[in-house]
Amino acid sequence: MAVTEDTIRSDYPLPVYNYRVEIDGETVAFSEVSGLSINYEVTTYKESPTSSNAAGPRIILMPSQIQQPTVSLKKGLVRKTSIALLYNWINSTATNVIVKKDIVVRLCDETGTPVVSWTVHNAFPTKLDAPTFDANSNDAAIESMELRADKITMAES
C-alpha cells in the first residue's frame, strides 16, 4: 500500500529544524532551543503496615510541586539585535529591575504552519555566554542565554 501525503502529515514525526521563537510577541531567530521540560518533584510517603504479617512500610511516590524550568537559547551574534535583545535584558536583571517575558516556541510543519507550541511563562535571564573565540575557525559567533521561568505549557496550535 502506498503512503499518502495525508498519512505522512498525520503519522510521521515533525522535523525539529522548522520552528519559530517569539519573545513578547516579537519573532527572533535562534539556532537552538533546549530545556523545554515539564518536571514535577517527587515526594516519598511511607505507610505503616496494616497487618502484623507485612514486612516493613509501604512506600508511595507522589508528584508534588512543579520544578521551575531552565531554558537555553542559542543564536548567532548579530550586530543590530544581539546587544539590544539579550544583553540589555540580562543587564536589567543586574540592576534589580527584573523584566520577565513570555517566550513561545512553535514547531511548524512543512508549510510553516505552527502545529505545537510551548509557552515559557515569566522567563528571566540568569546567564549570558559570549561566543567561543577561535582564530583557526570560521564558524559563526554563537551566543547563548539561560533563562529561568515559572512554568512551561504545551498546546496544539
Automatic annotation (TrEMBL):
GO terms for molecular function: structural molecule activity. Signal peptide: none annotated. It comes from the Bacteria. Pfam families: Phage_T4_gp19. Coiled coil: none annotated. This is Phage tail protein. It comes from Plesiocystis pacifica SIR-1. The lineage of its organism: Bacteria, Pseudomonadati, Myxococcota, Polyangia, Nannocystales.
